[in-house]
Design a protein that fits this description.
By secondary structure, the protein is an alpha+beta fold. The chain has 3 domains: 3-85, Uridine Diphospho-n-acetylenolpyruvylglucosamine Reductase, domain 2 (2-Layer Sandwich); 92-213, Uridine Diphospho-n-acetylenolpyruvylglucosamine Reductase, domain 3 (2-Layer Sandwich); 217-300, Uridine Diphospho-n-acetylenolpyruvylglucosamine Reductase, domain 1 (Alpha-Beta Complex), CATH 3.90.78.10. 30% of the residues lie in helices and 27% in strands. It has 8 helices and 19 strands. It has helices at residues 3-15, 47-59, 107-117, 132-138, 179-183, 199-216, 237-243, 272-290, and strands at residues 18-25, 37-44, 64-67, 73-74, 79-85, 92-95, 98-102, 119-120, 141-142, 145-146, 151-157, 163-167, 186-193, 195-196, 223-226, 250-251, 254-256, 263-266, 299-300. It has a 5-stranded antiparallel β-sheet, with helices on one face. A 4-stranded mixed β-sheet has the order 1-2-5-3. It is globular and about 55 Å long. The chain starts with a helix and ends in a 5-residue tail after the last strand. The chain binds flavin-adenine dinucleotide.
């Protein structure tokens, strides 16, 4: 984007009700700490403002991407379009056993809300670093549960910028998938159905899950979580990669985690291309040895001029 255009868009987007930053480093917004500047980084203050922002970007034909918690994406050295962050849409409120959550609220803030209201059913997600929007899109899951099991309603913006409300069953939840992953809808918020429970028991379950995460996952280093999807229920990606002797394999600053071979960690100023190269090496070795074609769970964003 030309400099003059950037300044024009700054004013227009700001007046739609958003925080706007120019040349914002994307590594500040991703858990793997990779990504150069986005020409414009915009964080709308309300769902209405987000809808108008998207409508504006679509009508101006400006390339854009949505970012939530940034825990599943690997960004390029430069993104010449607009990155729209949901981080200012973080309301969590409940009425009885129903909890309404805006898309940018973190999964963990939902869990803390549930703990304070003594609502049980989502403890399996304790410690998951994403936003509600990203988790719904991915049907995030852990330790035998998936977020989609608890979703009763979703409010989203469709590709024609219409506000649509659907029930959870219409979201097409399956393993790490929903209609939003392929259909391009933008999740604005979701409603969850939980049950009342005992505070001490909810706390115990959350602590247990956090303990498992700390034990198994390389939480002490920047990553984007599991790199690959499980191709079938009986195929364990991490242990397969480990068996092939690929733990600690390094390209530039990116390394297959020595703690959990299903993760790639940013050891030292890794770039997107370091991660992408490492991903290809691992996929090739797994294909040669098992005949299985791994698909990535992480998203490697394309560069935009
Ligand atoms: C240490 C670690 C552990 C993890 N453990 C797990 C785990 O146990 N289980 C699991 O499933 N995942 C896990 N993940 C991956 C990640 O946390 C989840 O996939 C999470 O749901 C991604 O949410 P996010 O908000 O960070 O999405 P982002 O990374 O911000 O975005 C991911 C995709 O969702 C899109 N998106 C984000 N918000 C919206 C929205 N509102 N509307 C439409 N599209 C949107 C983005 O455009 C992008 O395409 C882990 C990651 C890390 C770093």
């Amino acid at each position: 984007m030309a400099r003059r255009e950037l300044i024009d868009y700054f004013g227009s987007l700001y007046m739609l009700g958003a925080d706007v930053r120019l040349n914002e480093p994307l590594k500040w917004h991703t858990t793997i700490r990779i990504g150069g500047p986005a020409s414009v980084f915009v964080s709308p203050y309300s769902c209405e403002s987000l809808s108008e922002t998207i409508g504006f970007l679509r009508s101006e034909k400006i390339p854009y991407r949505i970012i939530g918690g940034g825990s599943n994406v690997v960004c390029p050295d430069r993104y010449g379009g607009v990155v729209v962050s949901t981080r200012n849409l973080n309301l969590v409120k409940s009425s009885g056993e129903r909890v309404l959550v805006e898309a940018g609220a973190s999964v963990n803030s939902l869990l803390w809300h549930c703990l304070s209201k003594e609502l049980t059913g989502m403890e399996f997600l304790a410690g998951l670093p994403g936003s509600i929007g990203g988790a719904v899109l991915m049907n995030a899951g852990a330790f035998g549960g998936e977020i989609g099991e608890r979703v009763t309603k979703i409010l989203y913006l469709d590709d024609k910028s219409r506000l649509i409300e659907i029930d959870g069953k219409s979201a097409g939840f399956s393993y790490r998938n929903s209609i939003f992953r392929s259909g391009g809808g933008i999740v604005l918020g979701a409603e969850f159905s939980l049950e009342s429970g005992e505070k001490s028991e909810i706390r115990r379950k959350m602590t247990e899950i956090l303990g498992k995460r700390l034990e198994k996952q390389p939480l002490e280093e920047p990553s984007a979580g599991s790199v690959f999807m499980r191709p079938r229920p009986d195929f364990y990606v991490g242990s397969t990669i480990e068996r092939l002797g690929l733990k600690s394999l390094r390209v530039g600053g990116a390394e297959v985690s020595a703690k959990h071979a299903g993760f790639i960690v940013n050891k030292q100023s890794a770039s997107q291309s370091d991660v992408a190269t490492l991903v290809e090496i691992v996929k090739k070795r797994v294909r040669e040895s098992t005949g299985v074609d791994l698909r990535t769970e992480i998203e490697i964003w394309k560069e935009v001029e």
